[in-house]
C-alpha cells in the first residue's frame, strides 16, 4: 500500500511540472499552455497538432560534447541541449528552407528576451515590403524572433543566425525559415533559461 502511495505522489509531481513519461522518456507535452511573460500573453499551442517527436522531451544522447553544448540536427529537425549522464533535452525545430541552410560551430554570444527584429539588407532586397522594419521591428507576439533569441557568433563575428522563438508553431519540423533555427515560444523560453552565454553550438 505504501509503494502505491509513493508512486501516486511521483505521478502527481510529474503532472504538476508539466511532464509526463512515455516509456522511459520524460515528455513535456503539457507545457504548451498559455503563458504571461513580461506583460505579453503567449497563446496556448495546439500541441496535439504537432508530431509527438517534436514535443520537448529528455532523451538518451551519446556524445563527447560536454553538458551545456547545443547540437542542432537540421536533417532530423531536432535541437539537443546536452545534459549529464548521457542525456539531452530535445526540442523540435524549424530550419532554413532550400538555399538558406547552414552548418558549422558557433557560440551563444548574447541572449535577449523579447528581442527587436531587424531584417538584413539581403532579406529586404528580396522582400521590399520589409523596408519599413530596417530600423527594427518592436518586440511583440507577431515579431518573427518570438519571445527569446540566442545570437550566434563565431571567429568571424556575428553569423547573422539565431536560435529564436516563433509564433508559427506549425512550422516546427519543416524547412521554412531564412536560415535561423526556430522553436515554439514555450520551448525557446525553456532553452533560454537552461542555456548559458558562451555555450558551444554545433549545427549539423
Automatic annotation (TrEMBL):
Gene3D superfamilies: L,D-transpeptidase catalytic domain-like
Active site: 164 (proton donor/acceptor), 180 (nucleophile)
Keywords linked to the UniProt accession: Cell shape, Cell wall biogenesis/degradation, Glycosyltransferase, Hydrolase, Lipoprotein, Peptidoglycan synthesis, Signal, Transferase
Signal peptide residues on this chain, from the entry's feature table: 1-19
Keyword Isomerase included in the entry's annotation: no
L,D-TPase catalytic domain span: 68-204
PROSITE patterns cross-referenced by the UniProt entry: LD_TPASE, PROKAR_LIPOPROTEIN
InterPro entries, sorted: LD-transpeptidase, LD_TPept_cat_dom, Transpep_catalytic_dom
Pathway: Cell wall biogenesis; peptidoglycan biosynthesis
One Pfam family in the UniProt entry: YkuD
Protein family membership: Belongs to the YkuD family.
Protein name: Lipoprotein-anchoring transpeptidase ErfK/SrfK
Amino acid at each position: 500500500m505504501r509503494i502505491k502511495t509513493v508512486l501516486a505522489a511521483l505521478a502527481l509531481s510529474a503532472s504538476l511540472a508539466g511532464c509526463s513519461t512515455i516509456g522511459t522518456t520524460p515528455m513535456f507535452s503539457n507545457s504548451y499552455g498559455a503563458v504571461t511573460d513580461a506583460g505579453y500573453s503567449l497563446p496556448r499551442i495546439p500541441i496535439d497538432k504537432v508530431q509527438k517527436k517534436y514535443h520537448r522531451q529528455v532523451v538518451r544522447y551519446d556524445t563527447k560534447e560536454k553538458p551545456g553544448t547545443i547540437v542542432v540536427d537540421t536533417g532530423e529537425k531536432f535541437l539537443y541541449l546536452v545534459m549529464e549522464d548521457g542525456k539531452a533535452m530535445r526540442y523540435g525545430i524549424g530550419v532554413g528552407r532550400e538555399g538558406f541552410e547552414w552548418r558549422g560551430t558557433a557560440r551563444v554570444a548574447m541572449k535577449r528576451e523579447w528581442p527587436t527584429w531587424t531584417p538584413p539588407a539581403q532579406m529586404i532586397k528580396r522582400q521590399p515590403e520589409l523596408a519599413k522594419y530596417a530600423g527594427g521591428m518592436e518586440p511583440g507576439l507577431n515579431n518573427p524572433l518570438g519571445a527569446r533569441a540566442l545570437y550566434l557568433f563565431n571567429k568571424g563575428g556575428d553569423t547573422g543566425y539565431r536560435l529564436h522563438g516563433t509564433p508559427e508553431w506549425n512550422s516546427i519540423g519543416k524547412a521554412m525559415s531564412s536560415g535561423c533555427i526556430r522553436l515554439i515560444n514555450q520551448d525557446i523560453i525553456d532553452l533560454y533559461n537552461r542555456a548559458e552565454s558562451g555555450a558551444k553550438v554545433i549545427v549539423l
